[in-house]
Amino acid sequence: MKIARFSRIGFILAAAGSAVGLGNIWKFPYITGEYGGGAFVLIYLFTVLVIGFSIMIAEMLIGYMGRRDSVTSFEILAPHHKQLWKYAGFQALAGLFIMIYYSVVIGWIFNYIVTSLSTLPSTVAQAEQTFNTMLHADFWTQFEYHTVAFIGITYVLTKGIKGGIEKMNMILMPALMLILLGMFAYALTLDTFSQAFHFMFFPDWSKIDSNAFVVAVGHAFFTLSLGMGAMMTYSASLEKNSNIVQAAFWVVFLDTTIAIVAGLMLFTFLYQYGAGPAKGPGLVFISLPAAFYEMGIIGNIFAVLFFIALAFAGLTSAVSLVEPMVQYFIDRFSWSRLKASIMMGLFFYLIGIFAILSNIEGASEYLTWGNKSFFDWVDYVTAAIMLPIAGLIMAVFIGFVIEKSKVESIMKPQLGFAFEAWYFSLRYITPIAMFVVMLSLMGVLS
Ligand code: PHE
């Protein structure tokens, strides 16, 4: 069915491109700020290694063995109840749902690239006002850039695995890493680097509560692109005899390194020129532009480069959020890639318009339920409910449903003595952790 295959490096870059996204550069620093730094970073690193890495291998394994879209892969691999198990593959829908707001945020970033060229806000208050005006009053700007994001993402998807996704990642990922490393090198020369380092690596346990643990696990999932069929669908295009463990290792390593580098750099800038670390979701859109302003002309250059890097990170993740459903329609309904890409694109594009409206004054009251706007609901339902469920299902699927001998024959040669530890983690540690996280995130425990 599928002929196009990733090259080895192409796969690693594409999977890392999926993982390294807004989650690393936008979300990780601000939740680290909210939970007081070092202690949170330690918990996060621990969860990435113990839970994230295990599920990453499991998810890649399902795609690699199934070699089809996520739904068909589950169906093929399940030894019994195939018609039931195939529904596990619909985790791919979560990716498409996430795109409803992810594309809007990429649009904000495009807008910030353009505006940073000329002006930066001179104070945090002004920066806040600029951001809030865009968010709550400026429908058209958000709409236009959301449209640009939709066109770009859909275009890449129509070009397929090799000519679209792999090619895009081969260019944008190295560019993104170069920009970040360049800015990181500059941060290293500033006095406040040590302060940022201290903040991120010296634990202050007083800010940690059970919530921090839950947020860390949820974020580990999101940032590694797990539970949405993304890694699974990419892995279906791996060459036979690929080393899954090695690929998973690189993805986890790059994702974590980039999050930490971005965090250290941002905190250094915020200590040196700005208001310090704890600033919530507005960190990169509010505190950071004001800090860049203080740097003078180099700040403009940095701001533009920074938002370009952020856009690259977002775009390479975005294609991986949509590709699983594109693949599903190609595989199961024999749609052409062109048709599947455009239809999936239109889905997130059109619904995304409501996500924009749900923050706009005058429209938001019709698009807010409980205390959450439609925009926030999409985030909540995907991150708090769909992801952990998918994680739980995949762990159970590999740990209990597929015959151990089958899993062992592929994974034992790659994992060696660590095989039993991985298997144990999938059977017991991960399911329990995911279950607890899900309950807490849904507010049952907290
Ligand atoms: N991992 C991406 C990020 O950190 C988000 C993402 C989730 C992308 C799931 C693809 C699939 O922003």
Description:
This protein is mainly α and 446 residues long. It has one domain (8-441): Amino acid/polyamine transporter I. It has 19 helices and 2 strands. It has helices spanning 8-19, 22-34, 38-66, 70-77, 82-85, 92-118, 124-137, 139-158, 160-188, 193-201, 210-223, 230-235, 244-273, 283-294, 297-333, 337-357, 374-401, 404-415, 419-441; strands at 368-369, 372-373. Strands 1-2 form a two-stranded antiparallel ribbon. Strand 1 (368-369) and strand 2 form a beta hairpin. Helix 6 runs antiparallel to helix 15 (297-333), helix 14 runs antiparallel to helix 15 and helix 16 packs across helix 17. The longest helix has 37 residues, at 297-333. Phenylalanine (PHE) binds next to helix 1, helix 2, helix 11 and helix 15. Phenylalanine binds at residues 18-19, 21-24, 95, 222-223, 225, 228, 230, 317, 320-321.
Compact description:
This protein is mostly helical and about 450 residues long. Helices cover about 80% and strands about 0% of the residues. The chain has a single domain, classed as Amino acid/polyamine transporter I, CATH 1.20.1740.10.
How would you summarize the topology of this molecule?
Layout: H1 8-19, H2 22-34, H3 38-66, H4 70-77, H5 82-85, H6 92-118, H7 124-137, H8 139-158, H9 160-188, H10 193-201, H11 210-223, H12 230-235, H13 244-273, H14 283-294, H15 297-333, H16 337-357, E1 368-369, E2 372-373, H17 374-401, H18 404-415, H19 419-441
Antiparallel strand pairs: 1-2
